[in-house]
Structures are given as C-alpha cells and as structure tokens.
Design a protein that fits this description.
- The chain has 195 residues and is an alpha+beta fold.
- The model has no long low-confidence stretch (mean pLDDT 82).
- It is built from 6 helices and 9 strands; from the N terminus they run αββββαβαβαβββαα.
- The protein has a 5-stranded antiparallel sheet, with no helix packed on it. The protein has a 4-stranded antiparallel sheet with strand order 6-5-4-7.
C-alpha cells in the first residue's frame, strides 16, 4: 500500500512538472512569435491644404527628422527578412531596414495628379539584406518589403512597430481625461456619482 502511494505521488509530481513545462513552453512560444518592437514615432504639423511636416523619430535618436508630406495619409516602408518560426522561438528576431517615408492620397486621381514626395530613410545604412540571406539562408523564411500606412491626424502621435512578420502602426490618441474613461469608470460614476 505504501509503495502504491509513493508511485502515485511520484506520478502526480512528474505529471504536474510536465504540465508546468508545457504551459511555460506555450507562453514562451506565444511571446516570441508575437513580439513587437517600436522602430519609429511620427507626429504631424499641418502647413497647408493636404501638406504636413512629418517629424520622424527613430530609436536612439531624440532629434526627429523633418519631412514635408503631401496627401491625407502617410506611409513608411521597410525591407524585411522573416526568420523561420523555430529560430524565432530560440530567440532570433526578424530583421528590418526602414527605407522610405512618403505621403499618399486616399483618392487615386489625387495620387496621380497632386504633388507627391518620397524620402529615403537610409537605404545604404543598416543591414545588408542580400548578404544576410546568402550567409544564413537556412534560418530565413522569406525576404520581402513591408509597408504600413494610415490617415494623418495632427492630434495623434503614431508609433511604428516591427513584429516578427512586418510593420504595423498604432495611434497614440491625445484625449481629455473624460474621453479616456473606460466602462468600469462609467459604472463607478453611475453607482457613486461623478467627481
């Protein structure tokens, strides 16, 4: 009987340990495959009809670059090297190089007839994509261009992120304290009165 109890306790401990290791592996895999890193911050100042000064700040550089943008949207492009998922889980991140910033118009006719400017963000700097692919091809899943664009709102600050699969942008909306209140704050205000 005592031996059966020892085997049962040992089995429970072993299965519990296996469960903890499995769940930890799932969380590590999820966090590695969904990791994001901010690579640029953009703000705008309106200077005319569909004309903006774009202020682009890159990590490690506190002084933003100033670019004249035409249109009602903006876009940033990058060369991107996606790492194979198993390599990414082991801790190697996908590689990128920001290459272009430009304005764009929602209306195609405006895009084809109105002023347009594109800016080189240092295509000669950073990683050499071709060399990286040639030297580490067994780790590389794909090499491609990644781009993200969104409407221009002067009140917003935009943060560009590099994920393991490409670029994405999020707006940091400037709001009043009342506009920031969530559903829980609304319930508390209703229950206890607004302060």
């Amino acid at each position: 009987m005592f031996r059966l109890l020892k085997v049962s306790v040992f089995t429970i401990v072993l299965l519990s340990l296996a469960l903890v290791v499995s769940v930890s592996g799932i969380f590590i895999t999820y966090s590695r495959l969904t990791a994001e890193e901010p690579v640029a911050r953009v703000t705008f100042e309106e200077v005319g009809n569909q004309e903006y000064n774009a202020y682009l700040t890159l990590p490690g550089n506190d002084i933003p670059g100033k670019y004249l943008i035409y249109g009602d949207q903006w876009r940033i492009d990058a060369e991107f090297v996606k790492i194979k998922p198993w390599v990414n889980i082991l801790g190697v991140d996908s590689r990128y190089k920001l290459v272009r910033l430009e304005g764009r118009y929602q209306d195609i006719e405006d895009q084809n007839t109105r002023p347009h400017m594109a800016y080189d963000l240092g295509a000669t700097k950073g990683i050499d994509i071709g060399k990286l692919v040639a030297d580490w091809n067994f780790l590389i899943d794909a090499e491609y261009g990644s781009s993200t664009f969104t409407d221009i709102a002067v009140a917003n600050t935009y943060t560009v992120y590099k994920s393991q699969f490409g670029l994405l942008v999020r707006e940091d909306v400037t709001q009043s304290n009342d506009a920031r209140k969530g559903a829980v704050d609304g319930v508390f205000d209703w229950l206890f009165g607004s302060k």
